[in-house]
Design a protein that fits this description.
There is one protein chain. The chain is α+β, with helices and mostly antiparallel strands and 285 residues long. The protein has three domains: 5-51, Uridine Diphospho-n-acetylenolpyruvylglucosamine Reductase, domain 2 (2-Layer Sandwich); 57-172, 2-Layer Sandwich (Uridine Diphospho-n-acetylenolpyruvylglucosamine Reductase, domain 3); 179-282, 2-Layer Sandwich (Enolase-like, domain 1), CATH 3.30.390. It is built from eleven helices and 14 strands. The strands form four sheets. It has a five-stranded antiparallel beta sheet with strand order 4-5-10-6-7. The protein has a four-stranded antiparallel beta sheet with strand order 11-12-13-14, sandwiched between helices. Helix 9 (227-233) packs antiparallel against helix 10. The longest helix has 18 residues, at 265-282.
Length: 285
């Protein structure tokens, strides 16, 4: 391995200052579960890694505010999120999703901020958080900004974060009576990278879909919200099987599928039909 510099700042602001927006070989590292694999494969060769291990402890906290909003520090591990009493009580869909996210060894090390900032469309958290209407707080040299998770991704392994911005926390709004579900298909074991994953958030009124958020990833180059499918289902009865079936066809036409080692385009289309239908059933309050 080619030698590189390793620095451990004490604050998030110091970490931001150590990043170089003009040099892509300078990267932050949190848990390192994805970055180290890229380095071992020779895909990424750093000149400097900025470790976030010693920054302020508040960025590892998970709390629920008085309005029911979940605040997840970027340095919280995936296991911290899975075991959080706030998540267990108010966001069961997150806990269920995390149980098949890689394995417990990875979840004990990987950080929420890294899982959201990495930009790999096969990640589990981005489509789920996007479906829940979550956003991230990014801190850079020019201040702080809030970015909806659905707008965080620009393409394959590309995000809308500046090279010298870091995610400080994720913010998940309360469900307030809505229901949510996450469904994914893997081509090998249950904790493998998904071939397709779907997150949905559903509000019902008198047996009809009042409001929906549907987000798909893994089969696509980035997290993708299905606006046309949402519009088609809004106002429809949830037991109208013909309409629901039609919505699955709309969803497959709305997605730009990618063929990869996890499956061909036709295969992923069928997976999306199956898992979107499953998520819509599961998400009925």
């Amino acid at each position: 391995m080619i030698p590189f510099d390793w620095v451990e700042p004490d604050t998030l602001q110091e970490a931001v200052a150590l990043l170089d927006p003009e040099d892509t070989s300078v990267r932050p590292i949190a848990g390192g579960t994805a970055l180290m694999l890229m380095m071992k494969a020779g895909v990424f060769t750093p000149t400097r890694l900025v470790s976030l291990a010693k920054i302020e402890k508040r960025y590892s906290e998970i709390r629920l505010d008085h309005e029911g909003v979940l605040h997840v520090g970027a340095m919280a591990t995936l296991s911290d999120l899975e075991q959080s009493p706030h998540v267990k009580e108010h966001f069961k869909v997150i806990r269920r999703a995390l149980r098949t996210l890689s394995n417990v060894r990875v979840r004990n090390v990987a950080r929420v901020g890294g899982a959201l900032a990495h930009g790999d469309p096969h990640m589990d958290l981005p489509p789920l958080f996007a479906a829940l209407g979550a956003s991230v707080v990014a801190i850079g040299p020019n201040g702080t900004r809030e970015i909806p998770v659905e707008d965080l991704y620009a393409g394959y392994y590309e995000t809308t974060l500046a090279k010298n911005e870091l995610i400080a926390e994720a913010i998940v709004p309360p469900l307030n009576g809505a229901a949510a579900a996450y469904s994914k298909a893997t081509s090998r074991s249950a904790d493998d990278w998904p071939a397709v994953n779907v997150g949905v958030r559903v509000e019902m009124e008198d047996g009809r879909f009042r409001q929906l958020r549907i987000v798909v990833s893994a089969a696509t180059e980035k997290v993708t919200r299905l606006h046309r499918t949402e519009e088609f289902l809004t106002g429809r009865k949830d037991n109208d099987r013909e309409r629901v079936h039609q919505s699955l066809a709309i969803a497959t036409s709305e997605v730009s599928f990618l063929s990869d080692a996890h499956g061909s385009v036709p295969y992923k289309k069928e997976l999306l039909r199956a898992h979107l239908g499953r998520a819509l059933i599961e998400a009925r309050p």
